């Protein structure tokens, strides 16, 4: 019990810790397509390609009429500029799969 109390007192604390978590939103337009078409032709292939990027923690996607939105969350500490360049390079190097 005494060691636990001592650990609480010694452990440094910050009121507002600075944690750098990088998010990247990618919108892929597909005018005139239904959400089902967008999901099968755009969202699923884009998710697969983005998930191959090193440093991605989570991916969320939304299919809507006329396009898809993909949100990529990178691991803590990856700089924003590096993350954007990785996504840009990966998507444009696989540009042939887009309708």
UniProtKB/TrEMBL annotation:
Q: Which Pfam families match?
A: ACR_tran
Q: Name one GO cellular component term.
A: plasma membrane
Q: Which InterPro entries match?
A: Acrflvin-R (IPR001036)
Domain of life, per lineage: Bacteria
Among the GO molecular function terms of this UniProt record, one is: xenobiotic transmembrane transporter activity
Instruction: Report what the protein is called.
Output: Acriflavin resistance protein
- What species does this protein belong to? Vibrio maritimus
């Amino acid at each position: 019990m005494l060691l636990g109390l001592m650990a609480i007192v010694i452990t440094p604390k910050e009121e507002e810790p600075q944690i750098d978590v990088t998010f990247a939103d990618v919108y892929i337009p597909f005018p005139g397509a239904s959400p089902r078409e967008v999901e099968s032709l755009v969202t699923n292939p884009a998710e697969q390609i983005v998930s191959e990027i090193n440093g991605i923690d989570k991916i969320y996607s939304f299919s809507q009429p006329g396009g898809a939105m993909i949100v990529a969350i990178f691991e803590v500490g990856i700089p924003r500029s590096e993350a954007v360049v990785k996504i840009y390079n990966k998507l444009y190097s696989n540009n042939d799969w887009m309708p």
